[in-house]
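FIELD: query
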Amino acid sequence: MFPVMIGTVVIAGIVGYASEKVGFTRNGYLQSIIICVGGAFLAYFVKLMFGIGLRPAGVNAIVSSLGALIIIPTHWRRR
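FIELD: result
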């Protein structure tokens, strides 16, 4: 259980960094990583408590991280 949580955090961090590097978001590196880790934690605990989610933990982390980046509308704010 604990290695899956660590893997979820690592995958979410990579997704957050990659989304910022590619230009999918313009939040900033740290902000994107925090958003992705939060979304991945939420999906991990929902899967743990209720069994709702995708089967492989890595795919669940990727999908939930991208979903959190899409839901949080920080890239529309004015700078």
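FIELD: remark
The chain has a mean pLDDT of 90.
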